[in-house]
Amino acid sequence: MDATNVNTNLHDCRDAFAATLEKMASADEAIVAVCNDSVGSSKLGGFKSKFPERLINVGIAEQNMVGVGAGLANGGRIPFVCGASCFLTGRALEQIKADISYSNANVKLIGISSGMAYGELGPTHHSIEDFAWTRVLPNLPVIAPCDRIETAAAVEWAASYAGPCFLRLSRVGVPDLLPEGHKFVPGRANLLRDGGDVTLIANGTLTHRMVKAAEILASQGVEARVLNMATVRPIDEAAIIAAAKETGAILTAEEHSIYGGLGSAVAEVVVDNLPVPMKRLGVPGIYAPTGSAEFLLDEFGMAPNAIAAAALALIKRK
Known about the structure:
By secondary structure, the protein is of the alpha/beta class. The chain folds into two domains: 9-168, 3-Layer(aba) Sandwich (Rossmann fold), CATH 3.40.50.970; 190-315, Rossmann fold. It is built from twelve helices and twelve strands. The longest helix has 15 residues, at 13-27.
């Protein structure tokens, strides 16, 4: 896909999630939604209007919410358990481990407003540890779609998948990157732009910034490969190894701590198979301050120009 064809209109991935969930629920009575007093922020208002008996609002009780989801799954339902990612994964991590992952329960965990989407509310509401917490758990695919199209496709896949998963969705608007009709395949990266000088890997809100950085690099005669790595676990090892072999340098960026997230997952594959120069962009092991998500990403060196500069510095290490 040529990065110059990226749609510049911005979309909230929560809208795609909600529309897809409502469409699937119309066709399958087993689909239910569970939330923690987050009907509005999870965009479940339409679902509540259409299927009031299939929305369970447990209030601000995330541990109970995950347990209710597990019980519904044991009863044959397909629960989509929705809440702010910082609280879903932080407060209910034990329940996610024991009731969902260990039990291999057919529960779809939807972490809303992930990363630094709640920027102005500060570190208590930032969710920059959720990749690290969830990707170590067996049986739990961890997914961060890059746009509304991939979000809809991932939600459809989740409903058809006989097991648990964690979908990490932001509220920050992003442009369309993937074609209409895209089919989500877990563990498979999407090649958005090819190149042989360096590979840029991201997911979620950072993918379109990587595409813009690749455009900047192209204007300077540097051809960057761009991979959308939506699935953090299971990760696309073949795509990473090919990137290391064919481009000789890998730069990752994520709306997460640089410890334990996408960059760490990529680095594990690189060091085990074909070590090449790498750089991980993200929150550098601190509590991020208050400010809009866009401001914070820029402050942590993830503006497109800064990403391009980091890529150029990385190439010099080859």
